[in-house]
Every structure is written in structure tokens, then in C-alpha cells.
Amino acid sequence: xxxxxxxxxxxxxxxxxxxxxxxxxxxxxxxxxxxxxxxxxxxxxxxxxxxxxxxxxxxxxxxxxxxxxxxxxxxxxxxxxxxxxxxxxxxxx
Length: 93
Prior knowledge:
Elements: H1 10-24, H2 37-44, H3 46-54, H4 78-92
């Protein structure tokens, strides 16, 4: 069952990649990081707030667990992953 969806700009995926690598030493391909944007959308955008209200979730988010199925990354060549990482680093600055 699908109740909601969102889109993520590529630039955001590269920043997620860089931040995850720096904090957790975990390297995932950019598309695998799209799920990181879900909680941000829910909690900081008007559309996300409307979604929470519509589904009676506004008082339940403190106990919510958001899972990101982070597949991909180990098949990406090291030099390509480094380029992805550097793109993210540039965007964060």
C-alpha cells in the first residue's frame, strides 16, 4: 500500500552520501539515500504536515522509526564513489 511519495534532487543525494560517509564511514550509492529525505519532508514542509494530519500521525512522530533500505554501494567502483563523495563535499561547503 502506498500512501505518500516525494522526490529528491540529485544534489541532496550527494550531500547525504558525503554526510553519511563522514559520520558513519558508510558509502551508499546516491539513489539508495533518497529515503533519508522522508522525515525531513514530513516534519519541515507544509505538504508533510498535511500528510501527518490526514493520517492522524501528528502526535505520534516522537516515537516513530523511519527505516531507509540502503541498498547499493559495494558494486560502485571506488573512483566513482570518490567522485560522488567530492560532489557532496562541494555542495556542503
